[in-house]
C-alpha cells in the first residue's frame, strides 16, 4: 500500500522540490502581459502630471462660481494644449476634460450648467460644492510605488505602468517547463484512430495552462510505454527545463511506465529520488514526483494521473502553486461559494468538481456541477463547460444545497 496524503501534505512535499528563480530580464510593456514583476514599478512622474479639468466646461475664479454669474469667454484650452490664457474676475476660459487648468483659475463649471450667447456665458444652475478640478499627483506622486514586486502583470497593471511613465518593467525569468504526455494509445488530433487508440489532449491542455500560469513550455513530446525509449526522451526533454510535468502512467498497471522508470523498478535510472502516493482526493488520487538527473542538475518532475479531468484538477491544485513559488508570487485566492443543487460525493476523499457559477439575490456566489457526471475522471467536457473548480472542505457522501465550498475561477 502506498502512502496516503492530504492535498496539503502532498503540496508541501512538492514545494521542497523547487527553488525560486532569481534570473530577471527587462521587457517592454507590450511583452510583459502575464509576467511576474521582479522589482517594484515606481512613478516616473506624478499622476495627474498637472492640474487639469475633470469636465468639459468653463474655467473660472472661485468667486465667480455661483448661480447667475455672467462671464466673458477669453480663451479656449483643449486637452494637450500648452496654452495658459490670462483671465481676470468676470472672465472665463472654455476648457475640455483633461486640459491644463489656467493658472489664474480655481474651478470648472460644467457646460451643462451654463448658457452661452455672444461670447458671454451665464451660470443657470447652482454649481454646488464640487470644483471639478483634478490636482497634480492626486492619484500618485513622482517616485511612489505603483506596482509591487511579485505581481502577476495584466492589462490594468500595465496601463498603470504606462500612465506613470514607465515603458519597461523588470520581470522574473519564466520557468522553463517540459510537458510530457505518455501512452502508446495516444494519437495527434486529426489523425485516423485504430482500435484502442485515443486522441492526445493532456499535453495540449498542460502546455496552454502552463503558458497562462507564466511558464515557458520548452518541450511537449508524447512518450511511448517502452521504458528505454521513455527514459532517453525524458533525458532530452529535461535537459533544458526547470521543471517537468508529466501525465499518465502513475498508477499500478503492468504498463504504467512512468512509475517503472522513475521508481527504478526496471533497473538503473536517472531518477535520483522518487515517490508515488495516493492523495485523498477525487479525481486525481494517484500522484508522483521525482528528481531526474540531467547532466549536472537534478530537475524536479511532477507526475500527474492520465485521465483528462484528473490531469486538469491536478494541474490546478499542484502545478500552479509550484509555478507561483518559482516566480515568487502569491497564489490566486480561493473564494467561498454556496452549493446550488445537490450532487453525490465519493466516500473518504475530498472531491474537486468543475462547476458553473452564478449569484443569488444577495449577490453570493452559487455553484453547480458543470456535468451530470460531476467529477468522473474521464470527463473532458466537464472542465470545458465549467467556470472553475469547487473544492470540498472535507470528505462527505453527499453535497447539499446551502453547503459552503471553496471555489476558484480558471485562469
From TrEMBL:
Supply the InterPro entries for this chain. Answer: MoaB/Mog-like_dom_sf, MoaB/Mog_dom, MoeA-like, MoeA_C_domain_IV, MoeA_C_domain_IV_sf, MoeA_linker/N, MoeA_linker/N_sf
This protein's cofactor list reads: Mg(2+)
Q: Please give the Pfam families that the UniProt record associates with this protein.
A: MoCF_biosynth (PF00994), MoeA_C (PF03454), MoeA_N (PF03453)
Say which domain of life the source belongs to: Bacteria
Any one GO BP annotation for this protein: Mo-molybdopterin cofactor biosynthetic process
Q: Which GO terms describe its molecular function?
A: metal ion binding; molybdopterin molybdotransferase activity
Quote the pathway field. Cofactor biosynthesis; molybdopterin biosynthesis
Recorded hits in SMART domains, A to Z, give:
MoCF_biosynth (SM00852)
User: What this chain does, per the record?
Assistant: Catalyzes the insertion of molybdate into adenylated molybdopterin with the concomitant release of AMP.
Q: Which family does it belong to?
A: Belongs to the MoeA family.
Q: Could you tell me what this protein is called?
A: Molybdopterin molybdenumtransferase
Q: Which organism is it from?
A: Arachnia propionica
This protein's gene is called: moeA_1
